[in-house]
Amino acid sequence: MMGFxxxxxxxxxxxxxxxxxALTGYQLNWRKSIVYILMWxxxxxxxxxxxxxxx
Length: 55
Fold this sequence. Notes:
Helix content is 84%, strand content 0%. The protein is an all-alpha fold. The chain has a domain at 28-55. The longest helix is centred in the last third of the chain and has 25 residues, at 30-54.
C-alpha cells in the first residue's frame, strides 16, 4: 500500500493536533503543553517505527 502513506502521515498529524488541543483545554502552561506534545510525537513515531520494523 505505497499509495496510502501520505494518508497515514495526515492521520498521525491530525491525532497529534487533537491531543494538543485536548491539552489546551486543561489550561496548562505553554512549556508543559509543548513537552506533552513532543512526548506524544515520540510515542507515535516509536509505534510507527516498530510497525515498520515488524513488517
